[in-house]
Design goal:
The complex is a heterodimer of chains A (120) and B (112). Chain A has 120 residues and is mainly beta. Chain A is built from no helices and eleven strands. Chain B contains no helices and nine strands.
Chain lengths: 120, 112
């Protein structure tokens, strides 16, 4: 149980285009979803936190107009990288957390497999 | 948020026990300690969580001293497949809190 999927797993796009990444909780309702970015050999950096039905909370330094997050349902959150540039190339990882205690007694985050974005 | 400090890297050999220590000097009363494992190009995977003393599950043990200013993840008899990055996170996870800040992690290399 507690599986999170991401789609696509890998995407290559041209500079200036927009890319949408989906994050789904497959067997539980995710009250909160998180989006991270990870550069090679670096740690995960939290980009934003989203709760179903409300606006995402972005971390300092993350442009909310560039990284659009939509958490339309309890099982789906999307991250859209708008007008992508080569410096946006990274590994994007989402995680989901269910209602406390219902999915995990540890209230842990369940991570998706990640999406490798390459902007040419 | 309690900041964590871990060794950047560690080497070990198959069959050995590996202990990775994490320092979190400003841990708060409500904070729990959670460890995640990450393989290249994959999302992190939960390993173990604890609050104090010792916690053991099927894959690891977590030792937390009385002052809780550090914790040690113990991996018994590692294999090549345990080569990964291990992250220690500290936060009030039980209350949907803020266990969201990843430190640098420890890159474990298991050699044959």
């Amino acid at each position: 149980g507690a599986v999170v999927s991401q789609h696509p797993s890998r995407v290559i796009c041209k500079s200036g285009t927009s890319v949408k990444i989906e994050c789904r909780s497959l067997d539980f309702q995710a009250t909160t979803m998180f989006w991270y970015r990870q550069f090679p050999k670096k740690s995960l950096m939290l980009m934003a936190t989203s709760n179903e039905g409300s606006k995402a909370t972005y971390e300092q330094g993350v442009e909310k107009d560039k990284f659009l997050i939509n958490h339309a349902s309890l099982t789906l959150s999307t991250l859209t990288v708008t007008s992508a540039h080569p410096e946006d190339s990274s590994f994007y990882i989402c995680s989901a957390r269910g209602a406390s205690g219902r999915v995990s007694p540890y209230n842990e985050q369940f991570f998706g497999p990640g999406t490798r974005l390459t902007v040419l | 948020l309690a900041k964590t400090t871990q060794p950047i890297s560690m080497d070990s050999y198959e069959g050995q026990e590996v202990n990775i220590t994490c320092s979190h000097n400003n841990i708060a009363t409500n904070d729990y300690i959670t460890w995640y494992q990450q393989f290249p190009s994959q999302g992190p995977r939960f390993i173990i969580q604890g609050y104090k003393t010792k916690v053991t599950n099927e894959v690891a043990s977590l030792f937390i001293p009385a002052d809780r200013k550090s914790s040690t993840l113990s991996l018994p008899r590692v294999s090549l497949s345990d080569t990964a990055v291990y992250y220690c996170l500290v936060g009030d996870g039980r209350n949907a809190g803020n266990m969201l800040t990843f430190g640098g992690g420890t890159r474990l290399m298991v050699k044959p």
